[in-house]
Amino acid sequence: MEKARRPPKNDIEFPLSLADNSYSNSNLFQDKATGNKAALWLRAKLQTELLFPLGRQAQAHAKKILVAGAVVLLSLSVGLRGARTENRVDKLWVEGKK
Question: Which of 15, 34, 68, 90 is the most buried if burial means most Cβ atoms within 10 Å?
């Protein structure tokens, strides 16, 4: 005897974007979709196979993502420490070829 599947309680269990993608995929493959079919197909594939799993992983490992982002931000800002601005116009001017 099979278990009856209970309806989802909220959007987290069954996100609307996946429902939209499955609907657009079904319309796309039944020749009911309008617009650029290649773009629709690419968008559906990217969202279902790349972006949604990536978002789930980011949500599951939020602390790691925040720490990695902070490390990248700090490492990129180290170069700004030694930067100097030039405010003499004659040094900033570049002669063009005539």
Answer: 15
